[in-house]
Amino acid sequence: MDAATLGILRDTSVIVLLSLLLGVAVYQGMRTAFPESRVSIGRVDPSAFSLVDVLMVAGIALLVLFGLNESLGNVAQEATKKEEAAELTAGGAFTGIVVQLLICTGLLVYLSTLRGVNPAELFGLRRVRLPRAALTGLLAIIPTWVIVTACMVLMNGWMKGFWPDLQGQDTAEAFRQSDDVVAKIMMAISAAIVAPLVEETIFRGFIYGTLKKHTDGIFAALASSLLFAVVHMHVGTLFPLAVLALAFCAAYEYTGSLLVPMVMHGIFNATSLVLMILFPDMPS
């Protein structure tokens, strides 16, 4: 990853972090001065979240920022790193799955043990049965996929005017170029099953819920969606992924269950993988 890409991602993460902290402070001040002004919208109930959770969210944003800063400091070695990242191995894919599950497990343990809340109740997992969540997610992802694809085409077309060497995401390119069938299967499991479960739990369930409690739904959706986009470490998909994340937030609020955005996320990732397999020359 080149210095320009890392610089944009770092600056975006700084903006998100500062906006997050400033937003919480401003909203808390407004609610203290005008307690009657608080308006609750949607079906996501964030009342169980506390200011301690805000610090956890800020910590996640700081980890992203520190990681980008470290990468920017080692930009001279990026050519070697890129070559290594382009290699998809079964061991690497399995390690990625384990790391994601450990992070998600740590968050769930924190919520259930230290915070004393039930994650299943907190995220509305029992509110909608799985068959209905699957059908709702399938219907919702169709217009979402069209909108996100249009955003991606427009974004790439605009960026090619001043960023002609715009590459695809490292993980997508690694999947496309790999000849290791086992590694590709592991990558597909990670993208279509593990990542939707983990990322929706972290970004929509925890980060969005925490920010909604201490700001409002719109601010929480924007901040959590931008952070979600930055974490994917690709400039060309920053805006499309933020739009995708906003659609996940909308689905979460509409149904009150995190199962629906999980299903949408899984279908979106699975569709992207299938398209890469069927059309290997298609931009990723």
Automatic annotation (TrEMBL):
Residues 184-270 form the CAAX prenyl protease 2/Lysostaphin resistance protein A-like domain. It comes from the Bacteria. Keywords: Membrane, Transmembrane, Transmembrane helix. GO terms for molecular function: endopeptidase activity. The keyword Cell cycle does not apply. InterPro entries: CAAX_protease, Rce1/LyrA-like_dom. The chain crosses the membrane at residues 6-27, 48-68, 88-112, 133-155, 181-198, 219-252, 258-279. One of its GO terms (biological process) is CAAX-box protein maturation. This is CAAX prenyl protease 2/Lysostaphin resistance protein A-like domain-containing protein.
